Amino acid sequence: MTNFIRSVVALLMLAAALPASAALKVLATTADWGALATELGGDQVNVYTATSALQDVHRVEAKPSLVARARTADLVIASGAELEIGWLPVLIQESGNKRIQPGAPGYFETTSVIMLVEKPEHFDRSLGDIHPQGNPHVQLDPRNIAIIAKALTQRFAQLDAAHAQYYEQRFKDFDTRWQAAIKKWESEAASLKGVPIVVMHRDQTYLCNWLGLNQVAAIEPKPGMPPTAGYLGQLVTKLKAAPPRAILVNAYNDPKAAKWLSARVNAPVIVLPFSVGGTPGAKDLFGLFDDTLNQLLAVLK
Amino acid sequence: MSSFKALAALLAFAGIALPALGYAASDDVASLRAELQALKDEYSKRVDALEQRISTLESMPVGATAEAGPPVPAPEPTPSTAGYGGQSTAFNPAMSLILAGSYTNTSQDPETWRIGGFMPGDGEVGPGARSFNLGESEITLSANVDPYFSAQMTAALSAEDEVEVEEAFFRTLALPDGFTAKGGRFFSGFGYLNEVHAHAWDFVDQPLVYQAFFGGQFKQDGVQVKWLAPTDLFVELGAETGNGDAFPGTRRNRNGFNGATLFAHVGGDVDDATSWRAGAAYLDQRAEDRAFEESDEFGFPLVDAFSGKSRTYVVDAVLKWQPVGDPNRRQLKVQGEYMRRRETGLLAFDTQGSNLSDSYRSTQSGWYLQGVYQFLPRWRAGLRYDSLDSGSPRIGLVDSGEFPLSAFPSLLPADPDRISLMLDWNPSEFTRLRAQFDWDDARGVDDRDRAFRLQYIYGIGTHAAHKY
Question: What's the pTM value of the predicted model, to 2 decimals?
Answer without folding.
Answer: 0.84
